[in-house]
Write a structure and sequence with these properties.
By secondary structure, this protein is mostly helical. The protein has three domains: about 100 residues, Fumarase/aspartase (N-terminal domain) (Fumarase C, Chain B, domain 1, Orthogonal Bundle); about 250 residues, Fumarase/aspartase (Central domain) (Fumarase C, Chain A, domain 2); about 60 residues, Fumarase/aspartase (C-terminal domain) (Ribonucleotide Reductase Protein R1, domain 1, Orthogonal Bundle), CATH 1.10.40.30. The protein has 19 helices and six strands. A hairpin with a 2-residue loop joins β1 and β2.
Length: about 450
């Protein structure tokens, strides 16, 4: 069968293709060729700018346009060449040399890929595509999602709900504040993420500019290498083997894993609130929640997100653990693994969209939230015993413990009867009687 959405092995290129097709600009075989062409041409122009040869303005413009207009047809042409060369980067080199012939500067062909090894191209092309995918796809999607969290936090800032620690009723909280917990966690991780450089390896066969230096010993190639890599928006690693050491890329993966874990935590909390009936979910005409139980509206968006985040984290764990390890000056294991960095990325984007979809279905069930508070008056015991401590009342914790711990029928009447029996001033009794599960929610920073 020919490859299409219904015959694809991976759901990324099959079931979910319509949601993720834009990622082929960064992670497909076509994208890798495109970024290799961009880097090779930019390097060729950089050599000309540093007076290793003269380049006509018309030819410069032609090559710039060739990089900008790189198409799937160009990629297919390179693949045909690769069948002969059996080397993907060399096929790109030959493609660019053809472009030099087309613009009348065929005599400059040997300046293409001058002094380089394949990894000088791969370890600049892939970081460049990764950088742009992060800047144009990942960070905007993540920040938009976190902004949605913040909007919901503002909407729900005055909703008091029963907290649960160890699954048991605990001191009440505000729903908006609970959402802000996730907002802050994500903001902190994004701050760490954006401080990790996008780095590249560029230094010849084993990282020492051997070929460059022997041909032009008076040139300061480390400085020139820094300048070139900076010109395409990356940071050059100063001491490398034949390949990048991938430590910064691994740091990106690890940061993404932490963010994914935070979102898994979020999905499970919302799932639990739905199961507690704190949220209803909007229904869509024609949709089915269960093939057997017509009444069900399942929290599938949060479940889908959790599943995709888990797959992403499993892959990111392997990527961050494997890529920084290579035998001596290099082995080929990084090449195979690097071709898969778009897979966890795609699962993450898919998860973001599932969470957004799920959030759009939520309908707050304020009645259920209020009922749970009213049915759990025992949670104000903390407030009562703390005020009694302030008043130096003898053994207040023990008194409240005897009243409430493990008891099934702690209601408003029980608590208020206990308060009225206390040997404290009328003012203190009034203060204690004013405490309810609905108003005992504490204070948090403004948001």
């Amino acid at each position: 069968m020919e490859l299409q959405a219904l015959t694809a092995i991976s759901p990324i290129d099959g079931r979910y293709r319509n949601q993720l097709h834009q990622l082929d600009e960064y992670f497909s075989e076509y994208a890798l060729m495109k970024y290799r062409v961009i880097v090779e041409i930019e390097y060729f122009l950089f050599l000309a700018d540093n007076r290793l040869f003269k380049l006509p303005v018309k030819a410069r413009n032609f090559l710039k346009q060739a990089a900008a207009d790189f198409s799937p047809a160009d990629a297919l042409h390179i693949k045909e060449t690769e069948k002969i060369t059996n080397h993907d980067v060399k096929a790109v080199e030959y493609f660019i040399k053809e472009k030099l012939d087309q613009c009348g500067i065929g005599q400059l062909k040997e300046w293409v890929h001058f002094g380089l090894t394949s990894q000088d191209i791969n370890n600049t092309s892939i970081p460049l595509s990764w950088k742009q995918a992060i800047e144009f796809e990942y960070l905007p999607a993540l920040l938009n999602l976190n902004n949605e969290f913040k909007i919901l936090a503002h909407s729900w800032r005055n909703i008091t709900l029963l907290a649960r620690t160890h699954g048991q009723p605990a001191s009440p909280t505000r729903l908006g504040k609970e959402i802000m917990v996730f907002v802050e966690r994500i903001e902190n991780q994004v701050e760490q993420f954006i401080n990790v450089p996008f780095s590249a390896k560029f230094g010849g066969a084993t990282g020492n500019f051997n070929a460059h230096f022997v041909a032009f010993p008076k040139k300061n190639w480390p400085v020139l290498g820094d300048q070139f890599v900076a010109s395409i928006g990356l940071q050059r690693q100063q001491f490398t083997t034949q390949i990048e050491h991938y430590d910064n890329l691994a740091a990106h993966f690890d940061a993404m894993k932490r963010i994914n874990t935070i979102l898994v935590d979020f999905c499970r909390d919302i799932w639990t609130y739905i199961s507690m009936d704190y949220f209803k979910q909007k229904t869509k005409k024609g949709e089915i929640g269960s093939s057997a139980m017509p009444h069900k509206v399942n929290p599938i968006d949060f479940e889908n997100a959790e599943g995709n985040l888990g797959i992403a984290n499993a892959l990111l764990e392997h990527l961050s653990g494997k890529l920084p390890v290579s035998r001596l000056q290099r082995d080929l294991t990084d090449s195979t693994v690097l071709r898969n960095i778009g897979v966890p990325f795609a699962h993450i984007i898919l998860a973001f969209r599932s969470i957004e979809k799920g959030l759009g279905k939520l309908v707050l069930n304020e009645r259920k939230i209020a009922d749970d508070l009213e049915n759990n008056w025992a949670v104000v015991a903390e407030a009562i015993q703390t005020i009694l401590r302030r008043e130096n009342y003898p053994k207040p914790y023990e008194a409240l413990k005897d009243l409430t711990r493990g008891k099934n029928a702690i209601d408003k009447k029980t608590i208020q009867t206990f308060i009225r029996s206390l040997k404290v001033s009328p003012a203190i009794k009034k203060e204690l009687l004013n405490i309810t599960p609905s108003n005992y929610y504490g204070i948090s920073p403004d948001y």
